[in-house]
Design goal:
By secondary structure, the protein is an alpha/beta fold. It is about 40% helix and about 15% strand. It has one domain: Metallo-beta-lactamase, Chain A (4-Layer Sandwich), CATH 3.60.15. Helix 5 crosses helix 6 and helix 9 packs across helix 10. The chain starts with 13 loop residues before the first strand and ends in a 7-residue tail after the last strand.
Length: about 325
């Protein structure tokens, strides 16, 4: 299903058959073109969108949860997502645009972004997804008559991201957790939080998926592929290398750096100067996640009382 104006291009939405109607894994972006693609795609498989029994959302992001509300309106289907993401969706729907903008502007200032960058990054707010009817937990079985679809909680990309193991067909729906050619965004929001470690959670979640063995993998982007375990550990190794590179970057600096300065010095898929304002905001979130994991591991520390917050390598980390 298309994601207009987004470099990802499309979301893969899956329909799992059951005697009481199909259950969708994700629902795609909230856009008329995506809705037509969903309706026609189901039709080509001999299904009707009005017969959809439920939508399991792997996580709350708009390219996955965006159309879930319209599917519910059309068919009366239930929407299910993990309780951690459900809580975020509730908060997003409560926040007014002004409050949301203020929250993000304050976060960016504390990270070291200047006034122009703050204005550019906070200019657009996606529409919040529809609240779910059902909340999922790790190990739950999805309401899919005649089949066994088990929830595998894989936090990291979002706090409530889930993979879904269709055990009767030996398939694993991975959402954004394990993708064949790219890696999902893992960020900290607000950037300077000290009570969470999303990248640490993500690395543990990759190990959890690897322990399931080599399953046929059905991701939300790119293409399906065999060997979920091998790819999960490739992504794990990628982030460990990125953590080493970040520590080396900080070792070369004489003074502590802000999150925004660090993000600007890190390597991305294109130069920092060429990133859009929204992509810079996401890059800063990912930089913050890697900084937080290094902090949890005792490799770096934040400068006490600094505003904006600054990070430096711990002196003992320089020892051979």
């Amino acid at each position: 299903m298309p994601i207009p104006g987004n470099p990802l291009g499309y979301t893969l939405v899956y329909a799992i058959e059951s005697p009481r109607g199909p259950v969708l894994v994700d629902a795609g972006w909230n856009h008329p073109d995506a809705w037509l693609a969903l309706r026609d795609g189901l039709g080509s498989a001999g299904m009707d969108v009005r017969d959809v029994r439920g939508v399991v959302v792997t996580h709350f992001h708009p390219d996955h949860a965006g159309l879930a509300g319209q599917v519910r309106e059309e068919s009366g289907a239930w929407i299910a997502m993990h309780e951690a993401d459900a809580a975020l969706v509730g908060l997003m729907n409560e926040l007014q645009d002004r409050e949301h903008r203020s929250f993000h502007a304050d976060m960016l200032k504390r990270a070291g972004a200047d006034a122009v960058e703050v204005e550019e990054v906070t200019a657009h707010r996606p529409r919040p997804p529809a609240p779910p009817d059902r909340e999922l937990r790790d190990g739950d079985l999805v309401d899919l008559p005649g089949r066994e679809l088990r929830v595998i909680w894989t936090p990291g990309h979002t706090p409530g991201h889930v993979c879904l193991h269709l055990r009767d067909a030996d398939r694993l729906f991975t959402g954004d957790h394990v993708l064949p050619g790219i890696t999902p965004h893992v960020g900290v929001y607000p950037y300077d939080r000290v009570d969470v470690d999303p990248l640490g959670d993500f690395l543990l979640s990759l190990e959890k998926v690897a322990e399931l063995g080599a399953l046929e993998t059905l991701p939300a982007h790119e293409w399906t592929f065999p060997g979920s375990a091998e790819r999960a550990m490739e992504i794990h190794a990628h982030h460990e290398e990125k953590l080493l590179s970040l520590a080396a970057l900080l070792a070369e600096e004489r003074e502590p750096l802000t999150i925004w300065e660090i993000a600007g010095r890190m390597t991305w898929n294109r130069p920092w100067a060429d990133l859009s304002p929204q992509m810079r905001g996401m890059a800063a979130g990912e930089a913050a996640a890697h900084l937080r994991t290094l902090e949890v591991r005792g490799v770096i520390s934040r400068t006490a009382g600094s505003d904006p917050v600054r990070f430096a390598l711990r002196p003992e980390s320089l020892s051979p």
